[in-house]
Amino acid sequence: MINSSYYIEDPGYQGMKASYWPRIILWLLSIMSLVMLVKSFANKVNSINARSFSQINYMQFKNALICFGMFIFFLTFLEYLGMLLGGILFVFGLLTFLGGFSIKKSTNHLIISVVTIGVMWSIFTFGLKVILPEGELIRIW
Amino acid sequence: MIDVILQAFASIVFDPVTLGLMLVGTLAGILAGAIPGFTIAMGVILTLPFTFGMTAIQGLATMLGVFVGGFSGGLMSCMLTGIPGTPSSVATTFDGFPLVRSGKPGLALGLGLWSSFFGGMISAVILVALAPQLAFLGLEFGPWDYFSLIIFALTITVSLSGGNIVKGLIAGLLGLFAATVGEDEINGVARFTFGFDEFKQGFAFLPVLIGLFAFSQLLTDVEDDKRAKSPLMEKSGTLVRVEHRQAIAIIFKRWINLFRSSFIGIFTGILPAAGGSISNILAYDQAKKASKRRANFGKGEYDGIVAPEAANNATAGGALIMMMALGIPGDIVTAVMLGALMIHNIIPGPTFIQDEPLLAYGVFIAFFVAHFFMVGLQAFSLRIFLLVTKIPMYVLASVILAYCAIGVFALHNVVFDIWVMFFFGIIGYFMKKLGFPLAPMILGVVLGKLAELNLARATGISDDLFLFFLRPWSLFFLIMAVISVIFPFYQDAEKGSKFSNIYVPASVFALSVPLFFMESVTRLIIALIMVGISFYFVYKSFIKNKLLTN
Question: Is B505 buried (19+), middle (13-18) or exposed (0-12) by CB count in 10 A?
Answer without folding.
Answer: buried
